[in-house]
Design goal:
Helix content is 7%, strand content 46%.
């Protein structure tokens, strides 16, 4: 059986929501500054060594039950968020990921199968030699406080496989001292980014067009 696979993601996917910091405490404050001076800017650098970023590529097709879904991890990414201390906006985020760092991590596949999947992801799906970088840049941030954390909605431009599209990411953001944590998810339609997938069982097993991403990302104050 030819191993089915897909890849998606982004670097996005990253750390999409690292936009709020309360000077020195875990509480987050949305009040305006008490004077007319602009609030000082705070920057957080993303830490991939303590973060997880996973793309879930689920099976579809007539014989979907014969296949197995993929759990693709983005291993190498970086980025930075800038924000003021006292207000939600202005806020910005830039993030890049090395497309060749995306790897199959689902324990269903053995080591040899993972090697084959990773090769096909690089050469056939993401074409990483031609498109080595995945990038995200925020264009708008909205949010509100809920249960001591920020629930945020980040809109921005995702460039994947040489195509740029606007996406929206939902995240919950918390701050503890100099550490920021963003957890959330978003989905993309891989076909809109020109990302194809190999299939198995003569095309009866395929990968769904919608790819779901989940992330739990740590940022450190610069």
């Amino acid at each position: 059986m030819k191993i089915l696979l897909l890849a998606g993601i982004t670097g996005i996917l990253g750390a999409f929501g690292l936009f709020f910091y309360d000077s020195g405490s875990a509480a987050i404050d949305t009040k305006l500054a008490t004077n007319n001076d602009p609030a000082p800017e705070v920057r957080f650098r993303l830490d991939p060594s303590e973060s997880t970023f996973i793309a879930h590529a689920n099976r579809a097709g007539i014989a979907w039950f014969k296949g197995h879904s993929h759990r693709l991890a983005v291993k190498d990414f970086g980025g930075e968020a800038s924000l003021s201390l006292d207000v939600i906006n202005p806020a910005s985020l830039t993030m890049t990921a090395r497309s060749a760092s995306i790897e199959e991590t689902d324990p269903f596949f053995n080591a040899d199968q993972k090697k084959t999947i990773n090769k096909e992801v690089n050469e056939l799906v993401l074409e990483t030699a031609k498109y080595p970088e995945i990038a995200f840049r925020s264009t708008a941030v909205k949010g509100g406080v809920k249960n001591g954390a920020f629930d945020v909605e980040i809109t921005g431009d995702l460039t994947l496989h040489g195509i740029t599209k606007q996406i929206t990411i939902l995240a919950t953001v918390t701050v503890n001292g100099d550490t920021l944590r963003a957890k959330g998810e978003f989905s993309i339609n891989r076909k809109k980014f020109g990302v194809n997938a190999t299939d198995a069982f003569h095309g009866f097993v395929k990968v769904r067009h919608t790819i779901k991403f989940e992330f739990d990302i740590i940022g450190r104050r610069v």
